[in-house]
Amino acid sequence: MKNLIYILFPRRCVGCGKVIYPNEKFCEDCDFEKFRIQYPKCFYCGQENNLCSCSLFERKYDYIFSPFYYDDIISKSITRFKYNGHLDNGKFFADEMSRSLMKDFDYEKIDVVLNVPMTKKSKRMHGFSQTAYLAKIISENIEKTFEPLCLIKTRETPSQKNLKFKERITNLKGAFRVSEKIDLKGKTVLLCDDVKTTGTTLNECSKALKRAGAKQVVCLTAAMTKFKIRGEEN
Ligand SMILES: [Zn+2]
Ligand SMILES: [Zn+2]
User: Fold this and answer.
1) Within the chain, which residue ranges are assigned CATH 3.40.50.2020?
2) In angstroms, what is the span from residue 59 Cα to ligand 2's centroid?
3) pTM for the whole thing?
4) Cα–Cα distance, 191 to 180 (Å, whole number)
5) Which of 30, 45, 204, 206 is a plausible cystine mate for 61, CB 3.0–4.6 Å?
6) Alpha-carbon gap, residue 233 to 229, rounded angstroms
7) Angle CA 6–98–208, to nearest 5
């Protein structure tokens, strides 16, 4: 019976999607460790200490944690989770995110777990909210309440992907609000997203959360763009 399941639903490498043996996670060509963010790291921008970009970018959240840099197989793996519905990949990242958080932050302080909301259009296109999927698993791992409808996107915005740094900021200005059904006063909030690039989305969400009274906003993403000393963080 078990074998039949593997034939019908073969196990795929989290990195490249190749069919692999049932008890493995990766094929031999995919090395996730190469993209893991190494210690010592800065808990305010999430980068390795020598790439700390805290003094260069405005930050509205208090901390950010991320297990991986967004590159190569990591980005391919996240793309397959986001756009092709490979939920195994999502589960893998949610578990990695949980481990990063538990290692780097006193997670008992977290009162509530939230996800960055998606526009209705992209939810319709992909059939589910990937950020909610990640946040739900994380909330179970750390045994905290998940409030999927706390942050609300107030208007449809063009995808951030194709915009320049400055356009990204204006694109999302005031695009999020907090549901009046949920009281965040004095709370420490864990905000989950799939990828951090410029941090604009996390900043705008954090502003809304702080306006609603949140004491601290702790961000957690599956991956983040590696900051390059020269050039624009993107
Ligand atoms: Zn692979
Ligand atoms: Zn930093």
Assistant:
1) 39-224
2) 10
3) 0.91
4) 18
5) 206
6) 9
7) 125
